[in-house]
Amino acid sequence: MKIIDTHCDVLLKLQTAKRGIMYDREPLSFKSSKQLNSNLYRLKKGGVVAQFFAIFIHPDVPSDEKWQHALEQIDLFYSEILGKNPEMKHIKQWEDFDCLADGEIGAVLTLEGADAFGNDLVKLRHLYRLGVLSIGLTWNNANLCADGAEEPRGGGLTLLGKEVVKLNNENRVFTDVSHSTVKGFWDIIELADYPIASHSNTRAICDHPRNLYDDQIKSMFQNNGLVHIVFWPPFIKGDLEKTTIADLIKHIDHLCSLGGVSRIGFGSDFDGITSFTEGLENASHYQNLIDELLNYYSENEVKGFAYQNFLDHRPQ
User: Fold this and answer.
1) Residue span of the structural domain in which 241 resides
2) Of 111, 173, 262, 283, which is least surrounded by CB within 10 A?
3) CATH at 99
4) pLDDT digits (tens, 9 = 90+) for 196-235
């Protein structure tokens, strides 16, 4: 079955390797490097037909270097993912999904945290032009747009952050709530035309700051939003003990109980996570999840989770 995955951190790993910081100071190959959970071989084997690639700048990077780090990751997206692999097709506008041929994989560029552009909206407009189609205002820390999910202050959006959401609306770009505080979430819901949780689970099943409360989930569904589940064990069970696909499906069950059967998707967070759900250790194992889901849901419902819900509710 086809898969659309709305979050991975391949670009960060490619950049870290190119800078000689990890992986024995050897560059990684997107085509086949085993260090990449979502390399091209594994995407193909797992049936992934569209992969979202996040630009992520670690908060330890000095402020005056963040834009350069973002440009390096974008360059790797163009050179190493698109440039060397003709089956990877850049999705620069939502209609491009409809033009993918058999054997092609759509590649979508996203931004995880507004740190990359600071308060410079010219840089933000450049990101739109380069094809960024989804923007999360924060990671876990605070920046000039908002507080992140683990910032103790727990603040919402700044005036700058609200302006960014409005610009996302004008450019038909998702505003991603996955790393938002509770207050920031409600600020986004009030403003965003295209809300998404690209990689979040349910707080009723696992009480973690990165997961969503029931009232947040219901509001997402009522406001044309999508909630894509994430595969990292601490967001599934709250610990690093053995986590199974059955544990992950509990979150899908809960989302469905809240009225989300047509608004659920997958956002693995592969290459950004350090432990794995048993049977979902990399993108090549995606069909294990599909097979298990088919034991509980109809084929049409599972197709919805896997790809069709996203296609039906992408920005128009």
Assistant:
1) 3-313
2) 262
3) 3.20.20.140
4) 999 999 999 999 999 999 999 999 999 999 999 999 999 9
